[in-house]
Amino acid sequence: MRQTSNLYSKQNSQEPQVIRGGDKKVMKKSLSLIVAAAMTLTTASVAFADNAPALTPQEKFDALKAAGIFNGFPDGSAGLDKEMTRAEFAKVLTLVAGLTPDATAAQYSDVAATHWAAGYIGAATKAGLLNGLGGGKFGPSGKVTTEQIAKVADLFAKVAIDENATVAGDVSAWAKAYVAAAIKAGFIQESSTYKSNAVRETLVNVAYTLAKPADAVLSATAAQTNNGEITVTLNRAATTEEKAAAKFALTSDDVNYTVTAAWAADNKSVVLTSTYLPAGAYSLAVTGLSAINVTIADEVATKIDITATALQQAESQDLNAVVYNQFGKAVDNADVDLTLVDVTTGKNVDTDGDGNFDLSDKDVFAVGDTFVATAVNAVNGLTTTKTFKLAAGSAATSLKFGTVAPLEGDARVNADTDGYTLPYTFVDQYGAAVKLGTKDVVVDGTRIDLSGITFIVSDKDIVTDLHVDSDGVLTFDTGKAGTVVISAINAATGANTSVSITVAAKASVAKLNMSKPSSVVVADEEVKVPYTALDTYGAKIDATGVDISGVKWGSNLDFAPGYPKLNGKGELLFKFAADQEGTAVVYAYANNVEAGHVSLTVKAPAAPVKLNGITGVVTTLTAGAKVDFDQDNITDLDTYNRTNNVAAGEFQVYTGDDSIVDYVGGQLVGVKAGKQTVTVYYTGGAKEDKNAYSFTVTVVSNDDVKSYTVDTIGTVYAPATAEVPGTAKYYKGVSLTGKLSTGKDVAIVQDGTGSNFGYITSSDTSILGVSGKKVFGVAAGTATVTAYDAAGNVVGTQTVTVSEAAPVAKTATFSADEFDITAATTITLNATTGNYFTVVDQYGVNNAPATAYVTSSDKAIATVALVDGNIVVTPVKTGTVTVTYRTSNGTTATTTVVVN
Questions:
Q1: Which of 67, 97, 532, 802 has the CB geometry, 3.0–4.6 Å to 777, for a possible disulfide?
Q2: 50 and 94 together in one domain
């Protein structure tokens, strides 16, 4: 994608002639404020588009006004057609340049110290932007001419001046070169005269052009920078507003890939990561930008390196061998074979259990011995060697700990949390950094040795584990709350350091600010109650992180069992018992203190009142055609005038004498040509009841169908030929919809007796094969499916795309938001049958991947496991947990499991 540019990108990046020193920084700040103001006055898409329309003079004025550069008139107008005084001109120049007003510098006899523009006139004069008229006068009420504006703009922007340039139109001799340069630069337009007084519109255009950086409009490019990683590079730093508006959507072959965005500290780039990105062509959409095409390649290992800088006479010496891919990034979990030979003695050194080397035995390994290390990545044919001189062990002469920071999104170091980084700076006698070797240690109250440095933890129940990864990063896990001291001592050199860490108790709900739902509250029905939760530290808790297990509830009306509760989205659900009605006052208590309350009007349970419509069903059929018609197609009104789908088994369908249309097995069936009134009524009632609903079904002959359309086939997966023809799950059926002369849809008989649908063909069977009235993929490409009627006439065509992209999860859904189980019952959410859980790929096929991840929000209540593609939930004790299913490409589904 091209990056936007501007004529003055270089000019505006330089310091104007008339501004000196520290004024430059102030000016840049002022300019950025103007541009930010301009962007807030346009749509969000403009802020992220490289084809943004040019602003009108009014829009430029609005931006400059928002930045405090211009003022409107008392009637609110911009007055763009009005002339501007020299005093007003001085103000605009001062503010655009970011100068500090200085009334003391306005040494003019006609500018009093109390004049409203004295500070601006002084600043513009001091900076050399404006001069007096002579005789010690400035002429603040005098007008500004177009040629005067042209000169100031040229000097401000440091435009090259051609003294020999010519200008058509009336212009002063001294101004000719400046006017010519200003026209060329786009500051002013050509005119018949430049001696006339300038109107405010001219100055608005010039001021905005001077203020607007070349890259005010954001543009972006994108490229793969690692396995599963795309970097979006911006032409400039994004503003806070632009970052907030930026959304990233990555797709390939109609599959959406979940990406996590991480902005660079300078806001000039964004790294997008995904757990799985197969090789292929992708389209990246960024808010307001045209789609960016990105090609993803499979990861290829290209280099291996030993990154350790030294070996010490100590245990756990890590060579830190790294395999790099084509992007220069480390390959995760690369298989590396390491050997280390003390060539001074000819002794091979064995690795310890962690893949490191123990060189602490001084009787075997002497300081100064030469070692040769070899690292081999056999699967990719990569090898490297490195030579070391053994240095004295425990050589760290300076030990320092840094400050432990909370995890991202947290305000403090919390109890029962893993992965806090303990920064350290250990330096040896030569000034080189000393890195700890890889190790995982459970803190048991004794001294801990890490690469010859002794660590002491004052309370093993507060800090429970220490970890050092392959990069030497030291982390720890916490247990209970309290204050703990971690010390490091090098007995060999006497160096030591310590750090005190306060571990806070995990924040719990302290306040629940609840409000009334927007919908009616009905007994025996779930209702979502809006709320805001604050923790014990007064911070707002994100909905997905709220835990109300410690909250106690009080209400004058009884709740249904298991309520109140949170669903998997963190929404607060109330459900009152079926026999409750009236005003309910609900109290929430945290730590035996009221956390919040809400008053609700609870209405009696709803009942169906009247059937009121049908939806999603074709009511014109040919004889023999069938259409599904069940509770999903029938709606009714309840007691509170709400439209719902009728409950299964609670309705009957009457089709008269069945001679025109019949109702069999949940389907309307065309019998013969004609019209028939079909009536739906409640079970236990009668078709004549006022709460019944009637509609007309028309049955037509094949001759009445004047045209056909091929129903959408969608993308077909290839190769599918290895599967059994006719039953293969990636075969796709081809069907037709008929059309009357009026254009109305007709359900037709697709096959067999009474069908006018003959057969189908493919324009290229090497891409798209045909089996009966089904198609299957052979190879990537496109082919045209042609449908014929029984007489062999073409009745419809459709271009079909065949893709070889491997099936990946596109959607994952649970059949219910909540499942209830007992404490003694293990349940299986079956993905393969779709009874409780369904994963659908980009081809519309139910296809649960072999590899996925499933978690429980609280293992103390229920554990979960993925067994043969099914989710097995094992209850531990009563309570509520959120079960989350996530595929390797980031497709996610959640549900709530209540253990009773």
A1: 802
A2: yes
pLDDT at 24: 37
Cα–chain center distance at 890: 12
- Taking residue 522's Cβ as centre, other Cβ atoms within 10 Å add up to 21
CATH number reported for the structural domain that contains residue 366 in this entry: 2.60.40
The answer to whether the beta carbons of residues 842 and 255 sit under 8 Å apart is: yes
8 A C-beta contact, residue 704 and residue 685: no
Could you give the angle at which helices 176-185 and 146-157 cross, rounded to 10 degrees?
70
| Same-domain status, 760 and 673 | no
Proportion of the chain in helix, strand, coil states, percent, rounded to 5: 10, 40, 50
Amino acid found at 263: W
SS3 label, residue 483: strand
Local structure of 214: helix, strand or coil: coil
Q: Which domain holds residue 445?
A: 396-503
- The answer to whether position 9 is within a domain reads no
In DSSP terms, 853 is beta-bridged to 886
User: For residues 798 and 789, what is the distance between their CA atoms, to the nearest angstrom?
Assistant: 15
3-state secondary structure of 333: coil
Q: How far is CA 592 from the centre of its chain?
A: 39
Instruction: Find the CATH number of the domain harbouring 727.
Output: 2.60.40.3460
- 319 and 372 share a domain? yes
List pLDDT tens digits, range 602-658: 999 999 999 999 999 999 999 999 999 999 999 999 999 999 999 999 999 999 989
pLDDT at 81: 87
Phi, psi of 527 (to 5 degrees): -140, 140
Say yes or no: 259 and 342 in one domain.
no
How large is the angle between the packed helices 86-97 and 23-40, nearest 10 degrees? 100
Q: Is residue 637 part of a domain?
A: yes
Per the structure, the count of domains in the chain is 8
Q: Are 600 and 557 in contact (CB under 8 A)?
A: no
Let me know whether 31 and 121 are in one domain. Answer: yes
Separation CA 264–CA 226 (nearest Å): 16
d(C-alpha 471, C-alpha 375), whole Å: 17
**What pLDDT digit, counting tens, does each position of 524-565 carry?**
999 999 999 998 888 888 887 788 888 999 999 999 988 998
On whether residue 77 sits in a domain, the answer given is yes
Rounded Cα distance between 669 and 660, Å, is: 9
Cβ neighbourhood burial of 761 (10 Å; 0-12, 13-18, 19+): middle
Q: Looking at the structure, do residues 38 and 136 belong to the same domain, yes or no?
A: yes
Amino acid at 599: S
Q: Which residues fall within 8 angstroms of residue 201, CB to CB, at 6 or more apart?
A: 57, 80, 81
Last residue of a domain, one of 603, 631, 658: 603
Q: What pLDDT was estimated at residue 721?
A: 52
- Please report the DSSP string for 158-198 in residue order: T----TT---SSB--GGGHHHHHHHHHHTSS---SBSSSBP
The answer to whether 211 and 64 have CB atoms below 8 angstroms apart is: yes
Instruction: Give yes or no: residues 74 and 201 share one domain.
Output: yes
- DSSP assignment of 579-613: T--EEEEEEEEETTEEEEEEEEEEEPPP-EEEEEE
Residue 184 lies in a domain: no
| Residue indicated by tokens 């057609």 | 81
Bond preceding residue 213 cis, omega within 30 of 0: no
The reported pLDDT for the residue numbered 207 is 84
Whether residues 747 and 838 fall in one domain: no
Q: Cβ distance 511 to 537 under 8 Å?
A: no
Which stretches of the chain score pLDDT less than 70? Answer: 1-54, 212-217, 393-395, 720-727, 831-835
How much is the pTM?
Answer: 0.53
Residue with tokens 């018949």: 192
Contact status, residue 291 vs residue 315, Cβ threshold 8 Å: no
Both tokens assigned to 113: 């110290």
Residue that has been written with the tokens 């709400």 in this structure: 642
Kindly state the tokens that stand for 883: 């079960």
Contact 661, 668 (CB under 8 A): yes
Residue with tokens 């945290």: 590
pLDDT computed for residue 308 by the predictor: 86
Last residue of a domain, one of 211, 243, 261: 211
